[in-house]
What does this fold into?
Amino acid sequence: MNVLFTFKIKDHQLEALTNDFPDIQFSFTKDLANEPIAQYEVIVTYGEDITSEVLDRATALKWLMVASAGVEKMPLAEIAERGIVMSNVRGIHKTPMAESVLAHILSEGRALPVLHAQQKRKEWNMKVRQTELRSSTALILGPGAIGSEIGRLLQAFGVETIGCNRSGASADFMDKTVQFNELLSVLPHADFVISVLPSTSATRGLLNESHFAAMKNTAMFMNFGRGDLVKESILVDALSNGEIRHAVLDVFEQEPLPAESKLWALDNVTISPHVSSHSGKYVERALEFFTRNLVKWQQGDRELLNIIEPKRGY
Amino acid sequence: MNVLFTFKIKDHQLEALTNDFPDIQFSFTKDLANEPIAQYEVIVTYGEDITSEVLDRATALKWLMVASAGVEKMPLAEIAERGIVMSNVRGIHKTPMAESVLAHILSEGRALPVLHAQQKRKEWNMKVRQTELRSSTALILGPGAIGSEIGRLLQAFGVETIGCNRSGASADFMDKTVQFNELLSVLPHADFVISVLPSTSATRGLLNESHFAAMKNTAMFMNFGRGDLVKESILVDALSNGEIRHAVLDVFEQEPLPAESKLWALDNVTISPHVSSHSGKYVERALEFFTRNLVKWQQGDRELLNIIEPKRGY
It folds into this structure.
């Protein structure tokens, strides 16, 4: 069996693959368009190089392993038509994102930025305001795969977790779940308001002035979902007026965040340039998804993990 | 029953006490030496104000509630002689310390100091080296109450934990435990080497050049125990020569860290001025210990939590 990768992996990763799957020939190309590809049963790709023309030539192709979370730009209709099995790495972002959220929460709580600033001045000062995460309350907007992973870690720290979604349906690692329209009643209880919501008609502009007014003055607001959840001007006002203590933003109405944005200069904002899902272990994780499925594939099992229905696109 | 506090608590904390214990009279003083104290059955103190003279006048005293972890400076012989029950808040530091350790680990892993520096320059740069904590390995020197709490949190993040103590006896939240004399064989496996060891004859100078040479070049060394675990010069050399990636130090051979220490200027060191156990919630936590015991005391139960045997001092 022949497998073609359209991205590089490390030597030790290839070695592990060849050891674990001695019957399989693994090949690599960066230029799918100019490669003879009729012999490959499996193509492992980030997705963007799969065109109708490629599919025409990939006459033996039976499984497309997409090492990314979204497939919306791929020729899904043709893939469906040809009966090609497609799987992705859905869930790969939850670990780095949840670690980022906890990193920011703990770093602020334990005053790490203050310690770093003192160190630069060679200043030994033990009078640093620090608190504990334990026994606080977090409201998680969007308790799906990523939100639940954040909830799981927060619960390990002894944090009460409240999930908030459209239906109010219960979610993993949430002590309770409420609906979007109950937001105003739960916001006053939250020490952390964390959004990982996608951009949909139900979430765009979901938060307005009244929501920030309802938050604790000591609350930390974290947006790791999409920037259109709240207008930047509303956020700037809430932060300037002390309606909340701090905001950590990984997403913005406009990205890159324009140089003239008032957010840059506020001292109670942390700007993360949409990198919370990035990870040096991405390829390693993607290969874990791949090899688990490759074992199944060799056994003739076509019920792969993270299978994508090309007609639906998810 | 009369209870005397020798430190202040907040109004809402006193209100909660008075509500929960309506039969008890709570009094407060900052000047035990000049206070009539013959009527108090219980004294709640940080410990340093309890002298033989105070004990002489505290003729009704039956329980000393010490809101600190150490009691070595108190007149233990007299306390034992008078049959006074003594309890402390052993374990109160484990939450803030474990949160500090995780804060530093996650902050480095998710490149928060880099993000903060970029923000100051109003720089939107997504090319930031970040990794994942998941699937790494941590070696915890001193897996007692604090070390095990660190281990519990690390395990929640999917980290393999190896405890290391004198006997090699198994410890909570450690996947395995080794003895001090096996250190050199486990150090090459650890991404994080975290010490919370006290200063004893077995731990002073425990780590020398060979231990740092045995660590991964990518390892992070964290000392949250006592500064005499390793000579500062050995640490400076290991950091300068790239034998380890980074050190986070909360304790030092000499504290405050002298201005002339080379540690201040190394860019792969984080200096925390012995504050990892500090917490804005300290009094709140101490009162939790106190009230749990006060319930027992009222019921005539003298088997208090965190009881101290004054003759032994722990």
Chain A touches chain B through 52 residues (CB under 8 Å). Chain A has a mean pLDDT of 96.
